[in-house]
């Protein structure tokens, strides 16, 4: 009988995006209601220096009406203009602080733009209670390096499309983990194996995988001792986790 490593956290990717507009307060609240263990969301900076929660560099994909499209990069727009755009069922792009106010679970805060780091670090420093439930993450080593300087006490995790992700990290993922003093790797499945995971774990790193799209992915996560799986559909994922934990 295989040994199942628990616990295993279900991470709501941009909230409960299968049922609610991604990266909105409604999506985060629904994901918490469904029962995710953690939430993942993305941070950018508006032209007037507000840390906002948005995945893309523009509003073109997520705006629910044409009037919200074609406005250009959000980095060139004041937050007042960004917040006026409906991104689904009357929801707006929230600020980082609004998401902190609206949530209670552990947060994976993904930095999409390095220039957002000083503002994010300032906010977290002003909210020590929330700092204890945050892990900063990024695909960008430069963002993690800046976070190491400005928010050294908040743990960091590197996100990769797979392992070894040699095109982005020519010196190797392990080199980036050391340079940024990251404590976790969140990897896409490509190239990820049990031996790779165990090697990283033996070196002291936590490992999570994304995306999780079915019960078989959850079973792998449990068997490999992954700390988490990132899901678009938390409601379905709760069922996958319950099924995967049934040992026959």
TrEMBL record:
Taxonomic superkingdom: Bacteria
Signal peptide: none
GO MF entry, a single one: phosphoric diester hydrolase activity
InterPro entries in UniProt: GP_PDE_dom, PLC-like_Pdiesterase_TIM-brl
Pfam families: GDPD
One record GO biological process: lipid metabolic process
Residues covered by the GP-PDE domain: 8-241
Annotated protein name in UniProt: Glycerophosphodiester phosphodiesterase family protein
Organism of this sequence: Prescottella equi ATCC 33707
């Amino acid at each position: 009988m295989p040994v199942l490593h628990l616990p295993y956290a279900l991470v709501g990717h941009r909230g409960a995006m299968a049922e609610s507009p991604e990266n909105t307060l409604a999506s985060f609240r629904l994901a918490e209601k469904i029962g995710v263990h953690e939430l993942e969301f993305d941070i950018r900076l508006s032209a007037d220096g507000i840390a906002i929660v948005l995945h893309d560099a523009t509003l073109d994909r997520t705006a629910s009406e044409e009037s919200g499209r074609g406005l250009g990069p959000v980095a060139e727009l004041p937050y007042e203009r960004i917040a006026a755009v409906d991104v689904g069922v009357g929801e707006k792009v929230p600020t980082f602080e609004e998401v902190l106010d609206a949530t209670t679970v552990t947060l994976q805060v993904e930095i999409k733009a390095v220039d957002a780091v000083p503002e994010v670090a300032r906010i977290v420093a002003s909210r020590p209670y929330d700092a204890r439930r945050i892990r900063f993450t990024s695909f960008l080593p430069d963002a993690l390096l800046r976070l190491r300087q400005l928010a050294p006490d908040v743990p960091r995790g590197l996100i990769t499309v797979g392992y070894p992700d040699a095109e982005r990290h020519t010196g190797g993922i392990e080199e980036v983990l050391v340079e940024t003093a990251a404590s976790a790797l969140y990897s896409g499945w490509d190239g990820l194996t049990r031996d790779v995971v165990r090697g990283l774990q033996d070196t002291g790193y936590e490992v999570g995988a994304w995306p999780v799209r079915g019960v078989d992915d959850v079973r792998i996560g449990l068997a490999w001792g992954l700390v988490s799986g990132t899901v678009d559909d938390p409601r379905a994922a709760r069922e996958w986790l319950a099924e995967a934990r049934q040992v026959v």
